[in-house]
Amino acid sequence: MNILKYLSITSLMVGAFSCDSSSNNGDWKSLGQLETRDAKEIESSTWSIGGETMDRDYTDYQSYKEYLGPLGAKRIRLQGGWARTEKVKGEYDFEWLDKVIPDAAERGVSPWVELSYGNPIYEGGGEAKLAGLIPMGEEALTAWDNWTRAMVNRYKSHVPEWEIWNEPDINKTHTGRQLGEFYLRTAKIVKEEQPEARLIALGMASVTKLDFVRDFMDYLKENDGLQYIDVFSYHGYTPNPSTSYPKIEILRELVWSYNSDIEFMQGENGAPSTPKEVTIGALRQYDWTELSQAKWNLRRMMGDHGRGIATNLFTISDMHYAAGDHMVGVNTKGILKTNPDKTIERPKMSYKAAQHAFSLFDSQIELLKNEKPITDQDSVSIFQYRHKKNGGTITSLWSNEGRPAEEYQSKVATVTLENASFEKPVLVDLISGNVLEIPKANWKKDGMQYVFSGIPIPDYPVLIAEKATLLLK
């Protein structure tokens, strides 16, 4: 069998996983496909899915909720929506969130809720949109405090984590110290009402605005507030996901210089699925397809996972931004394609790809940070894992040399692993879910090493895995 043609089983994937078939010198036997799991079947993982913009009615939870559990993510990011909840001063209407937060939790997906945005019914209340001002002034801040307290009290049984604001650095009038003061004020209220809550800062849009972060952290340090951050979240969109990691490491080192116990989380990242004339939002300057979206998303997800960074995939449903916000139009980063009325037309290729990653890489799969698998090809990302129960090895690898392409000539590589365990190694395509037995002619054990030859490496993650680590259908 020509493995490369076999793995490209759908018309949308033709050319995505292709190279000279003469590199394959054995019989690549099909073993089936990866089995996906519902969130309720997964005990725990670091994966989250985005459920953003319901606060402005740009997505419809009731339309996509049936896709949430089967996706397999264990967490969902939601935005609290002060302005949607309090349209009359002092009166809260939580009906829209009451239909969302408990339902997500019942589906096995734990909500983490961002407290935002402003509320223009108050003088100085800020703006109810992306890049809007934070609340300022006594009346507005008192109203913000009251809404925050009401939110936490109402949903604390379902919401273990609260994020405070989103992408404050987009608004050029905000300063790091100003956000430090606002964050600490809000964090103390959350902790008063829910002492066991985990707090997430700061949803930074950029990973390079170090002065902003330094001023923010300095304020917290000077005001005995560093203990009020459990997780630092950041976004940072780049056309090639791999190019962002050196900058992320610099950001991480800065934050850890204040408190090394703070966890890092990719709080929002994903690619569009349509040409630049169609989509809005980050990465809109490039042409995308559903295939290149799936590749990009997997590269971000597995690149984060291989570095021990939790990931929130942005996002579950296409978002329909309305006039008056930071942008207007359809943001096609959803892994579910929508109709004009925000109902769901169908899952995209990236939905299935995410299912495969979410189902397989749960808390039973241990990242081996000290292992350094190697290939004879340049520009390849590669990470090694161990299944905690059966000891089998999983290795993720992909070409990272450029932005994911619609067509790509796969590298043919030799891959060398140490401290690994294989009895029946297989090759796994995380987009299609196809699993093929690696022919004996293509691998050998040499002392303490396993050497795999003739392995195709496309521009999105595939796996060399011990079959016993997988669930197949």
Q: Explain this structure to me?
A:
The protein is of the alpha/beta class. The chain is built from eleven helices and 23 strands. The chain folds into two domains: 3-37 and 366-469, Sandwich (Immunoglobulin-like), CATH 2.60.40; 45-361, TIM Barrel (Alpha-Beta Barrel). The protein has helices at residues 3-7, 61-71, 82-85, 95-98, 101-106, 138-155, 176-193, 210-222, 245-256, 290-305, 349-360, and strands spanning 29-33, 47-50, 75-79, 110-115, 161-164, 198-204, 231-234, 263-269, 310-313, 319-321, 329-331, 336-338, 344-347, 365-367, 374-375, 380-387, 393-399, 411-418, 425-429, 434-437, 443-446, 449-457, 462-466.
What is the alpha-carbon Rg in Å?
23 Å
In total, the number of strands is 23
Distance between the termini: 21 Å
Overall number of structural domains: 2
Task: Identify the CATH class of the largest domain.
Answer: Alpha Beta
Number of helices: 11
CATH-assigned fold name of the largest domain? TIM Barrel
What's the average pLDDT?
94
Question: What percent of the residues sit in helical stretches (DSSP H or I)?
Answer: 25-40%
Tell me, briefly, the overall form: globular
Task: List low-pLDDT spans.
Answer: 5-24
Strands in their spatial order, largest beta sheet: 2-3-4-5-6-7-8-9
Largest pleated sheet: 8 strands, parallel, barrel
CATH fourth-tier homologous superfamily of the largest domain: Glycosidases
DSSP strand (E) fraction?
15-25%
CATH architecture of the largest domain: Alpha-Beta Barrel
Given the helix and strand composition, which structural class is it? alpha/beta
